[in-house]
Amino acid sequence: MKNLSFDQILNEVKQKNYAVLPFGMSKADLDGAAADFMEFLKIPQETKDKFYFKLDPKNHGSNIGYVRKSKAVGDGDNKEYFHYNLYAEDLLVKIPESDSIPAVKKFFDSARKIYALAENALGETMKEFDNKYPGIYGKFFRKDTHPFFYLRFLKYDIAGKGNFLARAHYDRGQCTLALAESAPGLRIGRNDATLKEVDRVDGTILFMPALGFSDITSTDFTPAWHDVVQSSNDLYNRDVARWAIVFFADTRVDNYMTMDEAHTAKG
Which domain of life does this protein belong to (predicted)? Predict the structure, then answer.
């Protein structure tokens, strides 16, 4: 599959609020990286907790490394995730356990490969946008600092029988690349009424405008409202409901958009 032109991306976004892009890694390899993440999650909790750093205390979305969310302490759901980026290379890989524990090293190696491919996919896409919006490529790929990108590995705990639901929301940044999931169930639209389940094709990823993308492009790029509805028949295993690998991109290091804004449909 060839890279999409700007007009092709725009047409797909207008039709379904996302566009399908080529990606240089197979679903099988992405599944393998997810398995490496699951092995990382098996290391002791006190060790996992060492892999955490917040770039900006005021910015909800600026954490890198490992995070555990729990309903028991007021979070929306029970999950674990890991944010990997170039800041992680600067900070987290210097933690002794990143090299001394094989599961950590293997996971970091997988994350590094996927991050590089996702960054390249975003770069090729923004080059197309640069023809229409001169300078947009440089906003994402700044020369004075690391880009504000996050590769997220996400694992949802088993939640009981029935449907496993990630509440509908917009992403807080400017665009998202949905790279892989363990099962069907991702739905994308403009609002609740237009949500439609996505069909995945091997060797492709999904480009989704986030809340801030129209600020640097146009109102044609309405943000992708999305959720996850998953049958209990699609569980990953007896301990894990679902996993996903997602790449978030922003041009702003000071994005203080609230959770309420992200979880309120605009139209």
Answer: Bacteria
Q: Give the predicted TM-score (pTM) of the model.
A: 0.93
The pair of three-digit structure tokens given for residue 57, joined into one six-digit string:
């205390």
Could you tell me if 60 and 83 are in contact, meaning their C-beta atoms sit under 8 angstroms apart? no
**Within a domain: 179:** yes
Contact status, residue 64 vs residue 76, Cβ threshold 8 Å: no
In the chain, the amino acid numbered 245 is: I
Residues 128, 141: Cα–Cα separation, whole Å:
14
* 122: CATH: 2.60.120.330
Looking up tokens 């890694």 gives 25
The residue written with tokens 């002791």 in the block is: 44
pLDDT digits (tens, 9 = 90+) for 130-181: 999 999 999 999 998 899 999 999 999 887 777 877 889 999 889 999 999 9
* Residue 11 placed within a domain: yes
| 108 contact partners, CB below 8 Å, separation of at least 6 | 84, 92, 93, 98
Q: How far is CA 244 from CA 78, 88, 94, in A?
A: 14, 19, 26
Q: Is residue 110 part of a domain?
A: yes
Question: How many domains does the chain contain in total?
Answer: 1
